[in-house]
Amino acid sequence: MNDTANRPNSETEFARACKSIPGGVNSPARAFGAVGGTPPYIQRGDGPYLFDIDGNQYIDFIGSWGPHILGHRHPAVIRAIQLALETGTSFGAPTVAESELAELVVKLVPSVEKVRMVNSGTEATMSAIRLARGFTGRDVIIKFAGCYHGHVDSLLVQAGSGALTLGTPSSPGVPSGCTADTLVLPYNDVAALGTAFEGKGAELAAVILEPVCGNMGCVVPTEEFLQALRQTCTNNGTVLIFDEVMSGFRVALNCAQSRLGVTPDLTTLGKILGGGMPVGAYGGRADIMDAVSPVGSVYQAGTLSGNPVAMASGLATLQQLVKDDPYNKLESLAAQLEDGLLAAAKNANVPVQINRVGSMLTMFFNEQPVTDFATATASDTDRFAKWFHGMLDRGVYLPCSQYEALFVSATHTPELIDETLEAASATLATL
Ligand code: PMP
């Protein structure tokens, strides 16, 4: 069994990092802020495993927060990256790999007729919002409480208050002017959506949402909500944006939009699209995408966008997903995990709610069904912290927040899920 008290090398490295990096990390979620303690420093990954610099091994259910659906160091992906590296790292001029990845995205994602590559999910959503505004000539956008779309100023709006509340910045440094045109609505609330559009439809540039939410924990949209979104946006000439940075190629090869049967106007992608390298993308209807520079006048650019090494990684990842079609396997492994966790929690008399779509899953320490931000934040986060550390000490690496989804990879096996469930039973018994 791993031992949190026995990570002296990680303790030393974290203390060292805190001196030169704010909070010791380059992205806040990694710092264990919500659960306390010191994050293990990772030496390497292999398939479903992570290994830290203290010699501990973990079954990994984060997968770099989404990208590693094929597990760590998939041979085809590593080989493609190595081959690309042999020819150089960046040219700032067109390469064939960019067209190959774009064509595959167009083929796989129902809403995408044209696509532009960027370097992160944040860039993708930022650019999609700008494009929707430029295309419609309107300013106001709608987002949903609890959905995260990267650290874009206009989308970094604190969740909470109800329909039609004007956005407030959730972060110092975001001028209120940046969020004044962002309306925040509750997820899954058809009536609030209707009210927001009443009399204002002609001002609304875009509605952006995670079509399967992962960033308040996993929250599933109702059929009614999705239909209302599509219909309302169509009726008002408002651009419907699905942020599939997390759900894209995760909940289905053809993304959440195929699974849910609703086609947005624009889609943002990231994570799996780069196979572990920094890639994001936004794409959609050709008439909208052609408003982007240099065809249209909506400006967006990037020195490293379409980087050849990153394109090779993404292309190899998507090609492998097409070839292997691991989605039935992912579904059955994740169902095994869900069923086992529910049984273990019941056995331990710990009330939980599990939301799952394909290989995305969150176990909420909550007595009520979780359908939106308000119900998600009613979860017992103290209990979650104990659960998280209990699992980590037993060699299972889960996301370090109640408001995240875990991911199963194609390299997990039924035996590894059983091992995870044994750790879960032992941990739940201590809560
Ligand atoms: N959108 C969604 C749905 C995400 O989950 C994330 C990242 N977790 C982002 C956007 C931002 O992506 P990135 O961290 O690559 O900027």
UniProtKB/TrEMBL annotation:
<keyword id="KW-0413">Isomerase</keyword>
<keyword id="KW-0963">Cytoplasm</keyword>
<dbReference type="InterPro" id="IPR015424">
    <property type="entry name" value="PyrdxlP-dep_Trfase"/>
</dbReference>
<comment type="pathway">
    <text>Porphyrin-containing compound metabolism; protoporphyrin-IX biosynthesis; 5-aminolevulinate from L-glutamyl-tRNA(Glu): step 2/2.</text>
</comment>
<dbReference type="GO" id="GO:0030170">
    <property type="term" value="F:pyridoxal phosphate binding"/>
</dbReference>
<dbReference type="InterPro" id="IPR015421">
    <property type="entry name" value="PyrdxlP-dep_Trfase_major"/>
</dbReference>
<dbReference type="InterPro" id="IPR049704">
    <property type="entry name" value="Aminotrans_3_PPA_site"/>
</dbReference>
<dbReference type="InterPro" id="IPR004639">
    <property type="entry name" value="4pyrrol_synth_GluAld_NH2Trfase"/>
</dbReference>
<comment type="similarity">
    <text>Belongs to the class-III pyridoxal-phosphate-dependent aminotransferase family. HemL subfamily.</text>
</comment>
<protein>
    <recommendedName>
        <fullName>Glutamate-1-semialdehyde 2,1-aminomutase</fullName>
        <ecNumber>5.4.3.8</ecNumber>
    </recommendedName>
</protein>
<comment type="subunit">
    <text>Homodimer.</text>
</comment>
<dbReference type="Pfam" id="PF00202">
    <property type="entry name" value="Aminotran_3"/>
</dbReference>
<keyword id="KW-0663">Pyridoxal phosphate</keyword>
<dbReference type="GO" id="GO:0042286">
    <property type="term" value="F:glutamate-1-semialdehyde 2,1-aminomutase activity"/>
</dbReference>
<keyword id="KW-0627">Porphyrin biosynthesis</keyword>
<feature type="modified residue" description="N6-(pyridoxal phosphate)lysine">
    <location>
        <position position="271"/>
    </location>
</feature>
<dbReference type="GO" id="GO:0008483">
    <property type="term" value="F:transaminase activity"/>
</dbReference>
<dbReference type="GO" id="GO:0006782">
    <property type="term" value="P:protoporphyrinogen IX biosynthetic process"/>
</dbReference>
<dbReference type="InterPro" id="IPR005814">
    <property type="entry name" value="Aminotrans_3"/>
</dbReference>
<dbReference type="GO" id="GO:0005737">
    <property type="term" value="C:cytoplasm"/>
</dbReference>
<dbReference type="InterPro" id="IPR015422">
    <property type="entry name" value="PyrdxlP-dep_Trfase_small"/>
</dbReference>
